[in-house]
Amino acid sequence: MNQLAALRQWTTVVADTGDFRQLAQFKPRDATTNPSLILKAVQKPEYRPLLDEAVNKHNGQPIDEVIDRLLVRFGTEILSIIPGRVSTEVDARLSFDTQATIARAERIVALYRAEGVDVGKRLLIKIASTWEGIEAARQLEKKGIHCNLTLLFSFAQAVACGAAGVQLISPFVGRIYDWYKKSAGSNWNEADNAGANDAGVKSVRQIFDYYKKHGIATEVMGASFRNVGQIAALAGCDLLTISPELLGELAASDAPLSHALDAEAAQRLDIPKLTLDEPAFRFALNEDAMATEKLAEGIRAFAADAVKLEKLMEAT
Predict the structure, then answer these.
(1) Catalytically annotated residues
(2) What confidence tens digit (pLDDT) does each residue in 160-169 have?
(3) Alpha-carbon distance 188 to 97, whole Å?
(4) pTM to 2 decimal places
């Protein structure tokens, strides 16, 4: 049994890509996209026609609406290949505007419905895990629109998402690892910070154990992996979203892979239940330098790629 097959015994495998032609090879249940992945995809010759089609078909409409139509076009193609859900992201520039995030999410949902997609079962709206984003997700979930809270780096963000009743969270393992490695500089010891000792892995384990201890239904999907060691250390997590490159490495390896996260074991742990109002959330996030910096950096990066995508469309 290769590592990918072993992982599937305990964890739902999700493909982290906008390149839907790679999906059939690895047979993931779900797939996630973001503006950066879509931007990367449409610069390939095989996907450029999708961008041209969106621009030509909806010429004269606001650019943000044409962007959403392109995202939905990719999403529907992905859904024709996978059996599960696709995550489609709201513009990161709306990360601090609850009502604008809700309005954009509802438009994306309407576009999927117009394509005949069962949005309740097959769509997750991706939103940044700011206080405003989490509040938007709370309201959307009440309307039956399920959400994937992304750019999640701190325990406080996870606690707030669980309390809001969001469907799924995506803690970013690799970006947490990146921050601690950069912060340590020449003092970094890779062996001492690998596997279960990886800061990103430890963050996901803490969230997973907290959710399972307190019966929080929100799904935990580890994301943003740098190596297969991080993935192996989280075997047993509800879901893991993995790039095609790392899926290939897992499929090519027959090294042993064991069950690392255990929901039943978590229920026996002594973990207090936390409640965070807005001031407490903001202070806890402020106290976590890594999470504060990586959240801001992630929003800036996704926003920049959204602008690049707009410029690419305007030049078409």
Answers:
(1) 126
(2) 999 999 999 9
(3) 38
(4) 0.95
